[in-house]
Amino acid sequence: MHEFLTAGVIGISLGAQYALLALGFTLIFGILGVINFAHGGFYALGGYVAYAAVSQLGLPFPLAVLAAVLATAALGALYELVLIERLVDDQLATMMLTLGLYLVISTALLAVFGPQSPEFIFPVKGTLRAGTVYLPLENLVVLAVCAAAIAALYLVLYRTDFGRALRALADDRKVATTQGMRPRLLFPLAFGLATGLAGLTGALVTPILALSPSAGDPVLITSFITVILGGLGSIAGAVVAAIIVGFVEAYASVYLGGSAGALMLFVIVLVILLARPSGLFGREVRGA
C-alpha cells in the first residue's frame, strides 16, 4: 500500500512538471499557431543557466531558477520577434525555424559545457515520512513550485487584460486585431512566457534527474504526447493530460518497469485518441 501511495505522490509531481511544459507548448500553438520544436531546448537551457548561476556566480538556488526563467523568456521573446514573427502564418517554415533553434541550443550547450552531465544537485534532500509512506522532499518542493506557477499562469490568463488579449487572439486573430489587440506586441510576450515556463521546469527538474545537452529530447516527446492527448490549444486539456501521463509513468515504473511503462503510456494515448481524435478537450482554437 505504501508503494502505491508513494507512486501516487510522485505521479502528481511528474504531472505538475509535465503540465508546465505542456502549457508552454500549447500556449504557443493556441495563440500563434506555431508548433515549437525548440521547447525541449529551452528546458535544457534553463537547467544549464541555473547550473552556471549556482556554480559560477555563487547564486542561491532560488535566484538561479529565477535567472533561468528570465534568460529563457528573453531568448524566446527575441527569437519570436526577430524570426518567427516574419513567417508566423507559415506553419512549415515556423516548424523548421523552431527545430533549427533547438539544434542550435543543444549544439551550443554541448560546445560550452561538454557532453558529460555536470554535478548539479537539488538543494533539498531527504524524505518525509507519513506513516508507512516515504515522500522525497525534492519531489514535494518541485510539486509546490509547479503548482504555484500553474496557479499564477491561470491568474495571468483569466484575470488580467494581458491574458484576455492573448485568449482573444487565440480565439480569432482577425476579430481581436480589429478590437485593438496588437499581435506584434503580444506574440513575442506569449512566446517568451511559454519558453520561460520551459526554463523554469528545466531549472527545477534537471538537478533531480539529469542535466545534459540532450536533456530536452525526451521532454519534447512527452510535451508533444501530452498536448496531443489533451487537445492542441487547450489549456485545461494540457493540465489534465499531464496529470494522466504523470500517474501512468509513476505507477508503470513501480509495477511494470520502465520500458513496459512507456508502452502502456502509448497504448493509453492511442485508445483515447481513437475515441476522441481531437484529444480530451480538443477544439478549433484559431480563426485566422
Explain what this protein looks like in three dimensions.
The N and C termini lie far apart (51 Å). The protein is globular, with a radius of gyration of 19 Å. Strands 1-2 form a two-stranded antiparallel sheet. It is 73% helix and 3% strand. The protein has one domain: ABC transporter involved in vitamin B12 uptake, BtuC. The C terminus is likely disordered. With 288 residues, it is mainly alpha-helical.
In short:
This protein is 73% helix and 3% strand.
Provide the fold topology.
Layout: H1 2-32, H2 39-55, H3 61-82, H4 91-113, E1 127-130, E2 133-136, H5 137-159, H6 161-171, H7 173-178, H8 183-205, H9 216-230, H10 235-255, H11 258-275
Antiparallel strand pairs: 1-2
Helix pairs in contact: 1-5, 1-8, 1-9, 1-10, 2-3, 2-4, 2-8, 2-9, 3-8, 5-6, 6-8, 9-10, 10-11
Which features would summarize this protein structure in a list?
single chain; 288 residues; mainly alpha; ABC transporter involved in vitamin B12 uptake, BtuC; 2 strands; 3% strand
Q: How do the SSEs run, as a string of H and E?
A: HHHHEEHHHHHHH
Secondary-structure-based class equals: mainly alpha
Biggest sheet: strands side by side, in what order? Answer: 1-2
- Please write the CATH class name: Mainly Alpha
Domain count, please report it.
1
